[in-house]
TrEMBL record:
Source species: Vitis vinifera
Name the record gives this protein: Retrovirus-related Pol polyprotein from transposon TNT 1-94
Length: 163
């Protein structure tokens, strides 16, 4: 991976991952046993928690397949590593504010993007002085029946964090 070309986005749109891409045969499972999928996901989670909130959504998606990852899942992990490698110079930046302490929160959801369970993903980030201080990307625990419901569920999760 040292000679790989860096990419500009954490996980490209052509990576639509699902359980159907998991190994189906015993030979495929044995082949994937030699891939350090869980170790790499753990390292990416550490980077996400400490200093890279921009990879939270991608890590959330890729970590769903740690128990039975396939080749397409591994390709997604390698893509994310290329992104992290290309963003090594980036860092968290905090700016002074003339208006006082201002915590700003952003929240979003993607409606039923999980192809296996048809659940939505909640994403939020809170910034203080322009720098991120809290972030999350997680599969919602229930199935939302509409885009509006998915957004409300995400907003409630963000409000719990804000309080």
């Amino acid at each position: 991976m040292e000679n790989s070309k860096p990419v500009s986005i954490p996980l490209a749109g052509h990576f639509i991952l699902s359980m159907t891409q998991c190994p189906q045969s015993e030979a495929e499972r044995k082949e994937m046993n030699f891939v350090p999928y869980a170790n790499v996901i753990g390292s990416l989670m550490y980077a996400m928690v400490c200093s890279q909130p921009d990879i939270a959504h991608s890590v959330s998606i890729l970590s769903r397949f740690m128990a039975n990852s396939g080749k397409e899942h591994w390709n997604g992990v390698k893509w994310l590593i290329r992104y992290v490698r290309g963003s090594l110079g980036a860092g968290l930046k905090f700016r002074s504010s003339k208006e006082g302490v201002g915590i700003i929160g952003y929240v979003d959801s993607d409606y039923a993007r999980d192809l296996d369970k048809r659940r939505s993903t909640t994403c939020y980030i809170f910034t203080l002085f322009g720098g991120p201080v809290s972030w999350k990307s997680q599969l919602q625990s229930i199935v939302a029946l509409s885009t509006t419901e998915a957004e409300y569920i995400a907003a409630i999760e963000a409000m719990k964090e804000a309080l």
